Sequence to fold (264 residues):
Amino acid sequence: MKVVLFCGGYGMRMRNGAADDVPKPMAMVGPRPLIWHVMRYYAHFGHTEFILCLGYGAAHIKNFFLSYEETISNDFVLRGGKAELLSTDIADWTITFVQTGIESPIGERLRRVRPYLDGDEMFLANYADVLSDVPLPDMIERFSNTDAGASMMVVPPQSSFHCVEMDEGGKVGSITAVSEMPLWENGGYFVLRQEVFDHIPENGDLVADGCGELAKRGRLLAYPYRGFWKPTDTVKERAALDNAYTHGDRPWALWEKQPAASIA
Fold:
């Protein structure tokens, strides 16, 4: 199944200044950028055909793969001055690079790569800046067993703030952590059918327009997940993931601990 990755945003909260033009998916976690970790996750389950929706900082992403060095993350034998790899990362990947505009919203980026989906009825999509160990085959199977037009992973709110309930006189009745409220937020992992394109207008949004319209029609499926899920919207969040990687705490790296699963 093809995987569409949205990797063309500015990522302003991840930047260190005007001179920093590296797109968010290229922020480093361990020896590799975020987008690599996301792609390895999908490849672990056999999904190795990627379509990258490029925009801001596209050259960084292109150059990373054009000059990819397998020895950084693979064991090898140096013999006669040449490296003989004992394993590889991306040798069996197919990556399509598509410039989808600097200012384009995500729905429009998806519209612009539709021709590269080859008419496949179902495909996967991801923001390329969130790491998770969500069981992808189960998510796909649940969606496949319905006639929904789209499925989105949803996760509990990640905010550490508290909500306060009070009366008109200002007396507080209860204080509840946002994470404990019966709410869910978009987790950024999607399984989509071609039908989603029927509901995304020109310069539209995938969630607000595409998924929003499908929800009104009762054709949007949620996949609730309470397991590991970490966004990288800020420098602090990226640094926390990088530190976890350094200390061997990387639950998203399923390829390091589980045998590869068959394609769902």
Summary: The first strand starts at residue 3 and ends at 7. The mean pLDDT is 90.
